[in-house]
């Protein structure tokens, strides 16, 4: 697993990543494409930690802004 | 200025394994410049069943001297990755772009992964390489940042370096993907 930008979030990230990869490979890729709450609680814990770190580094707003726009008009992955 | 770089490559693996490798591609021996990867959001579109994932990568690396001359002090770069997995139609669309050089040099990489045979997956890569130097120069020249450099020649020099680095980078990312795919095969993940 890759490291987190914020070392203090690494454990939470690893727990979430493990959950996500299991869900993705065992369920989503096998046809369970309905929204699933399986990893939500773990993601919430991780995200709280990560957002605090992004704010501390002063890049939270830059990322938030960048996420709104897709330079190629969304063809390649605008959510 | 917008330029395109296009390339198609085929992996000898089934599409599910290639998509899994995509999300697990860091770390690998070819990605030592990638410091971290964090997930910003994931959601499933309830109607289409598509999975939307946004991640943030931090990459570190020295700039080539010819570019560092114009853009000093950039030692790391944040990359925003947006992916859409469509399991029903077996396509993975990805977009990666650098965030913090945005005002000077913007590189947007789009990829589409789709099956090309029973055991092969094609990936088509399109890179939009964009230098906004002309526009930037108007702003910064007032502060004397550019000095006597002609914006046009600076732009050309940055684009030239950017394109050759992009080719090398694409080759390395493929080698990294292959290693991750091999690991998945060893662990018994053979697909769906």
Automatic annotation (TrEMBL), chain A:
<dbReference type="GO" id="GO:1990050">
    <property type="term" value="F:phosphatidic acid transfer activity"/>
</dbReference>
<dbReference type="GO" id="GO:0045332">
    <property type="term" value="P:phospholipid translocation"/>
</dbReference>
<dbReference type="InterPro" id="IPR007918">
    <property type="entry name" value="MDM35_apoptosis"/>
</dbReference>
<comment type="similarity">
    <text>Belongs to the TRIAP1/MDM35 family.</text>
</comment>
<dbReference type="Pfam" id="PF05254">
    <property type="entry name" value="UPF0203"/>
</dbReference>
<protein>
    <submittedName>
        <fullName>Mitochondrial distribution/morphology family 35/apoptosis</fullName>
    </submittedName>
</protein>
<dbReference type="GO" id="GO:0005758">
    <property type="term" value="C:mitochondrial intermembrane space"/>
</dbReference>
<dbReference type="GO" id="GO:0005634">
    <property type="term" value="C:nucleus"/>
</dbReference>
<keyword id="KW-1015">Disulfide bond</keyword>
<dbReference type="GO" id="GO:0005829">
    <property type="term" value="C:cytosol"/>
</dbReference>
